[in-house]
Amino acid sequence: QVQLVESGGGLVQAGESLRLSCAGSGFIFKSYVMAWYRQAPGKERELVADITPVGATKNYADFVKGRFTVSRDNAKSTLYLQMNSLEPEDTAVYYCNAPGYVIGGYQYWGQGTQVTVSS
C-alpha cells in the first residue's frame, strides 16, 4: 500500500539541470518530513536534502548546497528536487523517503531514479 515512486532522472552533461519528482501514497504525506537520498555504485546511500511537513525548513548536504532545491506539494503528495549545475560527482540513483514512517521495523523506499552526469 505504501508507495514512493521517483521519476525525472536521466543523462545530462555537466552544468545542466534536472528536476526529480517523488509521488507518495498509502500514508499521510503532509504529516511527514520527506527526504532525498542518493547512492552511487559501490558507495553508501547518503542524505541529499530534507524538508519539514509544510516546507518551513529545508536542509541540504554540503555537497549540494547552493545547487539543489527541495520542495513539496502536499496537495499532490509529491516531493521535488530541483538540481542545477550538475556535476559528474552527482551521478547516482536518487531515492525519496519519509524517515519517520516505519512500520514493523521496515523503512519504505521507492525504486529510485538514475541520474547520470557526463563531463
Outline the structure in words.
It is globular and about 40 Å long. The protein has strands at 3-7, 10-13, 18-25, 34-39, 46-51, 58-60, 68-73, 78-83, 92-97, 102-103, 106-107, 113-118. The protein is mainly beta. The chain is built from no helices and twelve strands. The strands form three sheets. A six-stranded mixed β-sheet has the order 2-12-9-4-5-6, with no helix packed on it. It has a four-stranded antiparallel β-sheet with strand order 1-3-8-7, with no helix packed on it. The chain has a two-stranded antiparallel ribbon with strand order 10-11.
H/E series: EEEEEEEEEEEE
Uncertain runs with pLDDT below 50, 5 residues or more? none
Instruction: Count every helix, treating DSSP H or I runs of 4 or more residues as helices.
Output: 0
> Which structural class do you get from the secondary structure elements?
mainly beta
Helix amount, in percent? under 10%
Give the amount of beta strand, in percent.
Answer: over 45%
* Major sheet: 6 strands, mixed
Q: What key attributes describe this structure?
A:
four-stranded antiparallel beta sheet; single chain; 119 residues; mainly beta; six-stranded mixed beta sheet
